[in-house]
Amino acid sequence: MKSYSKLSFYVFLLPIILWLVLLIIIPQIELLIMSLRFENDMGDMVWSFENYKEFFSNDIYWYTFVRTAMYAIFVTFLTFLVTFPIAFYITKIVNPRYIAFLTILLLLPFWVSELVRVYGWTILLRESGVINYFLQALGITTSGIEMLYNDFSMIMGLVYTSMLFMVIPLISSLESMDDSYIEAASDLGASKFTIFFKIIIPYCASGIVSGSIIVFMLTLGNYLTPNLMGGKNSLWFTEQIYNEFIASLNWNQGAAFGFLLLILSSLIIWLGLKLTKQNLAKALS
Amino acid sequence: MEYVLNVQNLEKHFADHSAVNGIDFFVEEGKFFSILGPSGCGKTTLLRMIAGFLEPTSGSIKIREEEMIGIAPNNRPVNLVFQNLALFPMMNVEENIAFGLKRKNLSQDVIDKKVKDILEKVHLKGYGKKEVSQLSGGQKQRIAIARSLVLEPSILLLDEPLGALDLKLRETMKIELKKLQAQFGTTFIYITHDQSEALVMSDKVAVMNNGQFEQIDTPKNLYANPKTSFVAGFVGESNMFEAKLKDDDMVITDAGISLKVNPIDKIKKKCKVYIRPESIILMPDDDLEGLNRFNLTVKTILFDGSNTKLLTTIENTEQEMMVSLPQNRQFAHIKDGDVIPVGVDVNDCKCYKK
Known about the structure:
The complex is a heterodimer. By secondary structure, chain A is mainly alpha-helical.
């Protein structure tokens, strides 16, 4: 019996191992090797840190890198601020029999691809878009205003595309929270403010952390939304990687950038977990 | 006389039904007061109104002469021990108990001392650093009570807190709770559907049915002199017979037995007669007076230790009757199928209007 369950454990483990090795680890090793190769003046490929040096010596790379990290953190935080009231409303305020229905309504936009969803926003916001049409029709403005291609529209787009990944873990952790905790806290003399920060947030910590990790990683690695809604000014680090690979055909440089982004995201998540005293296994279980 | 709790004309109507229909009662300082009723009788609604989680439709709730209507739960001098205890899982024992104290802006030294004292009083000294999940059911119970009592409330409300425990632990906790109440001297208002919990622990019990109190009395009186047919049927075990009035205090049951009864209500035609299993005297002496006498056929013996009963039918009828069987060897010869003469004192045949 025991050897049987052991066998089935390995049978189920095998596809995961294969997937990780073939699709993640091997390409990453390939990238790592590529990032350490550099074409010297003689036209020969040699081992070198030149690609990484290039990143540290060029301000625009640095700037984009830090900006992307900061905005990704900001977007994660903003997504939490926007989705928490929604999750709280769905799970604690409306009649419980509507929970499933309202969750489906939230899911609905995500049935179409990110491209289509983001394109929807551009239709609304662009110079000849819906909002501008109404503004002009109502006589508030005379000429179209460009609302796209700035940081504001980019962040709005990023929050919009990642909302679902925050709201679902929040709903599930709030749903598992018995209302009696809130009532007990109130009974023991806590104000609404205290209940929120001392009871609800700590109770939902694992949901918040898992939502934040997913949103942060998706935002940091997002290419489509910064490109479509931020335009040329978006300066998102994924675009630098894309440029190196596709525009400059400098795969070695692109690989180095890719690696730096991986290190950055791992570092920030590690730091976030340390600061909030959470651990990854607990947050994702 | 100043009462710690004084409830007048309390009503609560919901959209589709009314849960509490005009309740008046008061509780004296330092008493253990129970509200006993079947599920759905409105007792939890009543408790939540006292705690402040529900606003009554009308009526008044006064605690120590102060009107509580309109005051939020966090500003009322009452604390509630929840049915599921609601100990905060993200805090350890100490933090749970200190939660309410911190809201009062006490200094850390005072808080630490109070937490230590109360843990000692509930016999959980040294448990402060434990996580809630490490505690047993009975320990969680005591921590939940300690968390409330440490705030020294005027009244401690308890919402069926023993419901989730297994039988053995429930028996121990009953005694434990009674002791804690005596030790702290706090007024307890205890909600339950378990009559044995209410009878064992309380100074006074209110029996609640359909949003109203049927009777408020000491446990002994409640058991011995139920005022309504609901109380007679709900508190303790009883044999109930549907009957019709023949004359004065004579009734004839639907199964055709004539009984002299003790009418509690003014009876018109139809009535209900309640006889407790232990008030039936097996094989009474012929010279005992004031008894209703009849013969019973033993169908089966329901052995349950000190609580053993005979399931019988009244001879020549289908009318079933439960009779207590003392386990003192006097009646050890009784076996299935026997016909035995029995008697019941007329005063123990309580008759209520239908």
